[in-house]
Design brief:
217 residues, alpha/beta, Rossmann fold, Arc Repressor Mutant, subunit A, six-stranded parallel beta sheet, 11 helices, 51% helix
Length: 217
């Protein structure tokens, strides 16, 4: 059986070297290339078609989620593990919605990182904390409650557009560009729809969108 091929993308040379050392010790894993930015990652991913891509979420330009969307749309077989430093539910949800096979914390033990590489997307998405893992044990497409249906009705068409964009992981700037709005206007719409829905966080908005079946869990 051929070893699992891995492409690692991180702008820190020392981190890439560390991953290289780890993978060299594993006979069933093979580092096929390294990249230091999103453009190089996209080029190498489409050229080499690795089994797994380790992609730093905090690359310069903050385009890791866009790169994830682009690559997974181009090739459904590509498995991307996004690497981050924050054990945060909202970040994990954004990675999930962008099409990543998992979100792995950079301080996770080596054995857990290796497990994630060998089993990308295990049980839906591989997460490195029990609190985040709860996301994958919730119902996939729950039926919207009457309260949720009523709340949906009170939103304006513009607020529904904003909600959908937020749930899909777009930044305020990206939403503004798509809808021809200023960042401040986008933020105002977000505040108003959160007030109408009695939701306190962006992660809550994403859950609401899932319940409304606007996006898949």
């Amino acid at each position: 059986m051929n070893p699992t091929s891995v492409l690692v993308c991180d702008d820190h040379t020392i981190y890439r070297e560390g991953i290289k050392i780890i993978l060299e010790r594993e006979p069933d894993l093979k580092l096929v290339a390294e990249a230091k930015d999103d453009d190089e990652t996209t080029h190498l991913a489409l050229l080499l078609r690795p089994d797994v891509i380790l992609l730093d979420l905090a690359l310069p330009g903050m385009r890791a989620l866009d790169t994830t969307r682009h690559l997974t749309e181009r090739d459904r077989n590509i498995r991307i593990l996004l690497l981050g430093i924050y054990d945060d539910e909202e970040i994990a949800l954004r990675c999930k919605e962008a099409g990543a096979s998992g979100y792995v914390l950079k301080d996770t033990p080596v054995r857990d990182l290796l497990f994630a590489i060998r089993h990308p997307g295990n049980s839906g998405h591989y997460l490195t904390s029990s609190s985040l893992a709860k996301l994958n044990h919730s119902p996939r497409t729950p039926k919207p409650s009457k309260e949720a249906e009523l709340a949906w009705q009170v939103l304006s068409s513009r607020q529904r557009e904003i909600l959908l964009c937020l749930a899909e992981g777009f930044t305020y700037k990206e939403i503004g560009a798509r809808l021809h709005l200023s960042v401040k206007t986008v933020d105002t719409h977000k505040y108003n729809l959160m007030r109408k829905l009695n939701i306190q966080s962006r992660a809550g908005l994403i859950r609401f969108a899932i319940r409304q079946r606007l996006i898949e869990a």
